[in-house]
Amino acid sequence: MKPINAMKVQFEGRSVNEAFSRTAVAAFVAQLDPTVEELADIKTAVSEAVTNCIVHGYRDRLGVVYISANLYPDRRIQIKVRDKGCGIPDIQRAMEPMYTSAPEEERAGLGFAVMQSLMDRVKVVSKEGKGTTVTLERSIRCKGE
Amino acid sequence: MSVQIEIAEEYCIARLIGEIDHHNAKELREAIDNAVMTGQVQELDLDFREVSFMDSSGIGLVMGRYKLMQELGGSLHLVNIAGHLKKVMMLAGLDRLAILDKPEQRRRKVLSAEPASEEEMAETRSVEEELEEIPLEIGGEEA
Fold this sequence. Notes:
Chain A is α+β, with helices and mostly antiparallel strands. Chain A has one domain: Histidine kinase-like ATPase, C-terminal domain (Heat Shock Protein 90, 2-Layer Sandwich). In chain A, 32% of the residues lie in helices and 28% in strands. Chain A is built from 4 helices and 5 strands, in the order βααββααββ. Chain A has helices spanning 17-29, 36-57, 91-94, 111-118; strands at residues 5-12, 64-71, 76-83, 121-127, 131-139. Chain A has a 5-stranded antiparallel sheet with strand order 1-2-3-5-4, with helices on one face. In chain A, β4 (121-127) and β5 form a beta hairpin. In chain A, α1 runs antiparallel to α2 and α2 (36-57) packs antiparallel against α4. Chain B has 5 helices and 4 strands, in the order ββαβαβααα. In chain B, 34% of the residues are buried. Chain B is globular, with a radius of gyration of 15 Å. Chain B has a single domain (2-103), classed as STAS domain (Transcription Regulator spoIIAA, 2-Layer Sandwich). Chain B is an alpha/beta fold. Chain B has a 4-stranded mixed sheet. Classes of the chains: A alpha+beta, B alpha/beta. Chains A and B meet through α1, α2 and α4 of A and α1, α2 and α3 of B.
């Protein structure tokens, strides 16, 4: 299926940009007229994915975070959040609730669990030393449906 | 993001304002912990009424303060949790810690109370039970 609209944004992986990134995606999704709840879900999932890039992907350096979003005719939004950081050696383990490789930051280890419960689909592709791409998908319901 | 902290004896309420994410969680954590430690706080309430967004960094913040209060032999309660925040907290199982949705009025009641006799204590308890039945109002409208 071909997207009916698309956007890309990239920014330095500074934590102050976490708010920028979720707000930018929300502004793009707004054209589907989502509910407040749908928008909050998407913002939260994006926030988790971008935080992962900054906290884990670029753990000890500053890198660039790339976001692309596609809107499809069936009111589905697909969001890709990508870093060129260290990669995840064991994706299955990283996605386990409560597991965190950064306990000193008081991370709850719930990033992926939150993404999975708020999105329809979460896909993670990662290569050690190359980076990680998280793909989030969510359908926006038609109002009155 | 900011936090307003009020301390009265061993009780502390921290009113969180704005969005809670990884970027500002550390600052909030330090402000709250500093107040708890210097004020020798035994009862900590975190008020989420003015929080417009929260991701799992907020869960980390709550779990960290829960652990801190446990270590100090004190207690933690979360007040004014609604909508999206409630969803994220439930998802993390914070409801199982039995710290959610405590009416703020109850605290105030306890605060203003003089050291009570046993009879008065019983009365206070029944008032508290009544208060607990009241559903949490978010809008803050006059009754």
